[in-house]
Specification:
The complex is a heterodimer of chains A (434) and B (176). Chain A contains 16 helices and no strands. Chain A has 434 residues and is mostly helical. Classes of the chains: A mainly alpha (434), B alpha+beta (176).
């Protein structure tokens, strides 16, 4: 089957996921944990929003990045399933809109996710003043709008050329559409490589406004790509069971699983390098990040390593597990959820501190200046660990994400018929003895 | 091998595609190919020759594990009992600091161990003089070799006929 039909029951199921997520999102607006309820800033709602919006937008971003890298590198093997990746990359458009809501929120004071956006806090804080030329509302807004807009523009451009190639590819000579796509891909790569970190610093790292790490962007990007790779595997297997993607064989799944295996190690490399350098240098303003997480989030801290490194490493080590649907789906779900938890662990502790400070301010305890706030080791619902509401919101965003992918998938043929590398991809073979 | 030498009948082909087709024919006729030589690795050749999966990666895993343990336990022994030293106020048993060393030792043991084992099982190494069937095998020719020690003349003629019909450029015999 070359044309994807978005069936009624799929729409209903994904719609149900979205409704569940929406209900949970509303609930999180009111179910503020007691410690920070006094602040009245609905931190649980906004931090969940930031967490899921960045997670899914970033996944689309990294899928676009990898697709562009493959096209630039004359790669052929991915062509049989490239329509899926193109559909995912288009999520950049709604994803950037989600991030713009946060950007507008900075001006309007919808949320208090970022310590640097709080004018009172900046006025009495020299470190935040020093960073204010980058960490400010205009940069956040314009950066998201312009840089994110460029990503979304190039992603839609590449998709459009690819679909045009299907329709008119035979009429033009010298693979004109493919060459144009490659030009856009080559333009996208350096832009994405430089602007990706800039937006990661704005969106995620600035949650802990005093802290910085030069490795942070690599770490985030590898996390996004792993989540995207895992979701790709799950969707390919689902679509194969539904009867699509005849040309996507175990060989393609094997190579995708190799990517997942290798990048799980790369992710650990980034994670560990960041941790070890900070641990070794032992500079207070850097170690505070890990001190906070080791003291108050030990389950997330160690669980992160188990679920994102140890288990994928051991499961995907052998050839046979990379070629079986059962083990692949298990490992992919593990990696997808694991990296969602990874983002939870990056975002929640910082936002909780900001919320606690806001709660302290509203009581008039100005003495609780930044850094001096005492964080008890008490469990805070929705922050210390993902609660049921958080899981519901994840399901909702995932449903919306897949709904978007499927609705894009049905707009073009599942097989990129006139792609010059299609034939190579159909015959892709990883030599394995079975 | 009872005899100390091998009589080898081999044919040289110009192109790997022609040679691969010849191997398929030889398999169909149940000819017992001694070995196939090529200047470069050919995709799918080992499947055609019915070779089993290489077990070299198991060697790699064992050596990697060994290196991992040597690195980690070695560092542990050195810095906790042999010569305890304090670096930057860290404890003696500073696990994060040992991990880069552990990692490098794993890679080193794995790499060297696999190379040495590979050389041994292939019968290569310093001072080992391996007979070369034909110089151009290492350049631009593809070779199928049969062992003809105990073979009748008819059998040898049959093999020569096989080389002729599958398009071999040259046919040679050699005692190695």
């Amino acid at each position: 089957m070359k044309q994807f039909t978005f069936e009624r029951n799929q729409r209903t199921f994904l719609g149900g996921m979205m409704v569940l997520g929406f209900i949970c999102l509303i609930m999180s607006y009111f179910a503020e944990p007691a410690v920070i309820a006094d602040a009245g800033i609905h931190q649980r709602f906004w931090s969940n929003f930031l967490h899921n919006a960045t997670f899914f937008t970033g996944m689309a971003f990294m899928i676009t990045f990898v697709l562009a890298a493959f096209i630039t590198a004359y790669s052929g093997w991915h062509v049989t399933f490239k329509r899926l990746w193109e559909s995912i990359s288009l999520f950049l458009v709604p994803g950037i809109v989600l991030m713009l809501i946060l950007g507008i929120g900075n001006y309007m004071g919808f949320h208090h996710l970022y310590h640097w956006a709080d004018a009172d806090a900046v006025a009495s804080d020299t470190i935040l003043q020093g960073k204010s030329s980058f960490l400010n509302n205009n940069w956040y807004m314009l950066g998201t709008l312009i840089l994110g807009g460029i990503w979304a523009f190039i992603a839609t451009r590449m998709r459009k050329l690819s679909v045009q190639e299907d329709e008119q590819g035979k009429e033009v000579s010298n693979f004109a559409f493919h060459r144009k796509t490659r030009m856009w891909a080559a333009i996208f790569l350096p832009i994405a490589a430089f602007t990706g970190p800039a937006l990661i610093w704005q969106w995620i790292m600035s949650v802990d406004a005093h802290w910085y790490s030069t490795l942070f962007a690599w770490y985030c990007m590898s996390s996004w790509w792993l989540a995207g790779c895992a979701l790709t595997l799950i969707l390919i297997i689902y679509l194969k069971i539904k009867g699509y993607f005849d040309n996507v064989t175990n060989e393609h799944l094997h190579d995708l699983a190799k990517y997942m295996f290798a990048f799980s190690i790369f992710w650990t490399y980034c994670w560990f390098s960041q941790y070890m350098l900070i641990w070794y240098a032992n500079i207070g303003e850097e170690t505070i990040y890990f001190r906070e997480r080791l003291d108050n989030y030990p389950v997330l801290f160690y669980g992160n390593l188990v679920i994102n490194f140890l288990l994928p490493f051991l499961i995907l080590l052998r050839n046979t597990t990379k070629r079986r649907y059962g083990t692949l789906i298990f490992a992919s779900l593990l990696v997808l959820i694991g990296h969602w938890v990874d983002y939870f662990y990056m975002i929640k502790p910082g936002t909780l501190i900001t919320a606690k400070e806001a709660a302290g301010h509203s009581h008039g305890t100005e003495a609780a200046a930044h850094g001096a706030v005492q964080h008890g080791s008490s469990f805070v619902e929705g922050f210390s660990l993902p609660g049921l509401i958080e899981i519901g919101i994840f399901i909702g965003f995932l449903g919306a994400f897949i709904y978007f992918i499927f609705s894009q998938l049905q707009k073009a043929s599942m097989v990129a018929e006139n792609d010059p590398y299609l034939e190579e991809s159909v015959h892709h073979e990883v030599q394995v003895y079975e | 091998m009872s005899a100390k030498y091998k009589d080898v009948l081999f044919g040289l082909y110009d192109d790997e595609v022609i040679m691969m087709n010849a191997i398929k024919k030889a398999n169909a006729k149940h000819l017992d190919i001694m070995d196939v030589y090529s200047p470069f690795p050919i995709h799918g050749l080992d499947k055609l020759l019915g070779m089993d999966e290489s077990r070299l990666h198991i060697v790699g895993f064992i050596f990697g594990l060994l290196g991992c343990l040597v690195g980690f336990l070695g560092m542990t022994w050195i810095f906790t009992s042999d010569w305890p030293t304090i670096f930057g106020g860290k404890p003696y048993w500073a696990i994060p600091a040992f991990i880069p060393v552990t990692f490098e030792m794993t890679v080193l043991f794995c790499g060297i161990g696999m190379t040495v084992v590979f050389y041994i099982i292939c019968g290569m190494g310093f001072g080992v003089d391996n007979p070369v069937l034909h110089d151009r095998i290492t350049d631009d020719k593809f070779c199928i070799a049969f062992q003809t020690n105990d073979m009748s003349d008819d059998g040898v003629d049959g093999l020569k006929g096989f080389f002729d019909e599958t398009g071999a450029e040259e046919i040679h015999t050699k005692r190695i």
